[in-house]
Amino acid sequence: MNKPTPAAAPAAFSRDIKTIVNAGLQRRHAAEQRFRWYGLTAISLGLLFVVLMFANIIGKGYPAFWQTYVQVPITFDPAVIDPQGTRDPAALESADYAALVRAGMRRMFPNVEGRTELRALYALASSDATYELQRRVRQNPALIGSSQEIWLLASATVDTLVKGNIDRSLDETERPIKDNQIGWVDKLQAAGKIEKQFNTILFSSGDSREPEQAGIRGALMGSFYTLLITFLLSFPIGVATAVYLEEFAPKNRWTDLIEVNINNLAAVPSIVFGLLGLAVFINFFGLPRSAPLVGGLVLSLMTLPVIIIAGRAALTSVPPSIREAALGMGASKLQMVGHHVLPLAMPGMLTGSIIGMARALGESAPLLMIGMVAFIVDVPKGIMDPATVLPVQIYLWSDLPERAFVERTSAAIMVLLAFMVLMNGLAIILRKRFERRW
Amino acid sequence: MSTTTIEIKTALDDTLNSDTDAGKRSSVEVTDYENRQTVGKITVDHPKMVCRNVNVYYGAKHALKEVGIDIGTNEVIAFIGPSGCGKSTFLRCLNRMNDTIVACRVAGQIKLDADDIYDKSIDVVQLRARIGMVFQKPNPFPKSIYENVAYGPRIHGMVNTKAELDELVRASLERAGLLKEVDKRMNDPGTSLSGGQQQRLCIARAVAVNPEVILMDEPCSALDPIATAKIEELIDELRENYTIVIVTHSMQQAARVSQRTAYFHLGDLIEVGETDQIFTNPKHKLTEDYITGRFG
Fold first, then answer.
1. Is B22 part of any domain?
2. What's the distance, CA B109 to chain centroid?
3. Chain A neighbors of B155, CB-CB under 8 A
4. pLDDT tens across B149-178, in order?
5. CATH code at position B105
6. Is the pLDDT of residue B23 over 80?
7. Cβ B128–A340 below 8 Å, yes or no?
8. Domain contains B124
9. Contact call for B155 and A328, based on CB within 8 A
10. Is the Cβ of A219 closer than 8 Å to some Cβ of chain B?
């Protein structure tokens, strides 16, 4: 066969093509350039808002990690706390340490007189100061009879003042702290008796009415137990369901219906699961309200569809050649799935599960419905103890008026965000590590 | 290579090179294209597998029509035919791999040593241990070479101790002609081998469970000529202990390795016979057209 020779293009025609294309070329390149700019602007705006949000939260929450302490001269007067001289531990526990605190405060400001003035003076220390002295004597009874300079927790109003969040120019009736109290605090600060220490109380104690004594430990343990139950229930059931639906179930109208239902359940608003939990687990089965067990059950119902969908996608991605090879060797279907398909699909399943868990960690609406909105002071020790979770704790604190709670709310948000970043980071690391090429 | 093979090769080359005496070959008995009855002797003296009236349907499509053939013990039989003629489908019927395809329905009788393999009482897991399969694209498990070969014996409980398993793995790799090359790296992943080595690993894996029949679905189509030659040598050696059924697109390969050949065309088994007879003196017009390359 001969190669066809190209016909010679007429001179006038070729000049036209060039100019015609040139005319439109600028417009086309300009459109592409504009689109790139739109994209870049959108990304920059998005990043800007993320940075602003983080700056806001961190800016508000960072001060919560530092707590104001006052150094008070305390005399462990045996006449007050151990009149019998027996050093009996039970008696020491119930002794009147508050009197010691008051005596110490009076020693610092001997000129203060009158009940109102004295009450204002005593209000500078937190009620935790009493428990601090009790703790010290319990640990070291030899303290009785000695005089020490003890750092005691200051009240939340003093803390807020020291952090500069109270407007001193306001009229006295419009502030939570009085002029005489401000005077005393300034004197103490000048004498170097006021110090900010790291706020371990935030991580070691449960919720409290007093902001300076409030911590997130109760919410953290509640979240931990709830997520533990969620994981233990939703992961095995989700994986097994995905395996069954993908590998063993017959493909007919019923299984199609199930698949559609599962996809829909993944998009149902989470509060509906809370209503379900309330009606079934609490009213019908009589499980304790506000327990991590019930919270875990509700959240696992919510996470199951996500895990099933991720699991099915992971199973589908395993190439059929591996399945055929296993079947051809005489492996039973369960052996084929268990020995070959599941190990290869597991990384995808794990990633989907962790993302589902991270979402469950941040849920509050369904848990509000089952009662995890109560004010719980004790740190829960098991899955049946009443508890609350971190998002709900944030919600409760955000409602309270004290300025000290504002910064604690932001601090709790920081802790929650840190956990979510950690979990999602773990998911990414797992995915990268297990990536395989056939 | 035996003299017979050389003779077939030269005869085949002659047939392929002459496109002048088409239709004038004296051996062609059936000249009617519409006549799809099987020509030639389908029975053998000591059959390993006996297939009669096998029909396969993919949904409404009738993919294999009334196929009947014997597969002799310790012989290599080749299935040839144009694309889509049903040879792979028929091969997969022999070890019930078509069960995994939902829309596929198999009717008819296929017997392995007098057991009907589609009988309800037959356990398909045991059947697949007796009939092994090697696929077109090498598909070693993403595990170590040792694990690949050890998997079958382990799940069937063929060995009791680790020492016995080691022995079995080494023997299988030896039989597949792979032991020398992988002896020092048994724990390397199976996927780190070259294509030809992977296919030999798949053969070793199939041999490890000590099957009676080995089915090979175009085992060399993804390999280069040197690897292909190695595998064909292997098939010749394996013939002593196993019955081998091989589906192939290459007529030269069928001529080289098989003793009997079956030609399929659009779902019908057109002709069965000794390999040299099929390639030099085909009885059906369709067979002659295929081997002379009039279509393929």
1. no
2. 19
3. 329-331, 335, 339
4. 999 999 999 999 999 999 999 999 998 889
5. 3.40.50.300
6. no
7. no
8. yes
9. no
10. no
Buried b (16+ CB within 10 A) or exposed e, A300-337: bbbbbbbbbbbbbebbeebeeebbbbbbbbbbebebbb
H/E segment holding residue B206: helix B195-208
Beta carbons within 10 angstroms of residue B231's beta carbon:
24
Tell me whether residues B135 and A325 touch, CB distance under 8 A.
Answer: yes
Q: Which domain holds residue B219?
A: 3-10+27-135+213-291
Residue A74 has pLDDT above 80, yes or no: yes
Interface test mutation site (partner A, options B128, B137, B169, B216, max chain A beta carbons within 10 A): B128
Q: For residues B246-257, give the mean pLDDT.
A: 91
Nearest Cα of chain A lies from the Cα of B38 at a distance, in angstroms, of: 30
Look at A329-338, B17-26, B104-113, B187-196 and tell me which has the smallest mean pLDDT.
Answer: B17-26
A253-301: per-residue pLDDT in tens? Answer: 999 999 999 999 999 999 999 999 999 999 999 998 889 999 999 999 9
Q: Pull the structure tokens for residue A53.
A: 């949000």
- How many alpha carbons fall within 13 Å on the CB side of residue A308? 26
Q: What does the alpha-carbon distance between residue A277 and residue A302 come to, in Å, rounded to a whole number?
A: 11
Locate B245 and state its tokens: 């059924």
What is the nearest CA distance from A44 to chain B, expressed in angstroms? Answer: 43
Q: Does the structure show a pLDDT above 90 at B12?
A: no
CATH topology for A217-434 is: MetI-like fold (1.10.3720)
Terminal alpha carbon distance of chain B = 27
**Interface mutation target, options A329, A336, A436, A437, chain B, most CBs of B under 10 Å:** A329
For A178-193, what is each residue's pLDDT tens digit? 888 899 999 999 999 8
pLDDT mean over B189-201: 92
In degrees, rounded to 5, the angle at the alpha carbon of residue A28 between the alpha carbons of residues A23 and A34 is: 135
Are residues A329 and B151, on separate chains, in Cβ contact within 8 Å?
Answer: yes
Q: How confident is the model at residue A437 (pLDDT cuts 50, 70, 90)?
A: very low
Tell me the DSSP string of A403-416: HHHHHHHHHHHHHH
Could you tell me the pTM of the whole model?
0.78
A89-128, pLDDT tens digit by residue?
Answer: 888 888 888 888 998 999 888 888 889 888 989 889 999 8
- Looking at residue B295, its pLDDT comes to 63
CATH 1.10.3720.10 residue ranges for chain A: 217-434
Which chain B residue's Cα is nearest to A247?
Answer: B100
What is the SS3 assignment for A280?
helix
Residue B193: inside a domain: no
Q: Which two tokens stand for residue B143?
A: 């595990």
Residue B185 lies in a domain: no
**Cα–Cα distance between A414 and B182 in angstroms, integer?**
55
Q: Long-range contact list for B156-165, CB < 8 A, 24+ apart?
A: B156/A330, B156/B129, B156/B209, B158/B209, B158/B210
Residue A320: closest C-alpha in chain B: B139
List beta partners, residue A101. none
CA distance B121 to A249: 23
Mutual angle of helices B195-208 and A320-328, in 10-degree steps: 30
Residues of B in contact with A323 (CB under 8 A): 100
Indicate the average pLDDT of chain A. Answer: 89
Number of domains forming the structure of chain B: 1
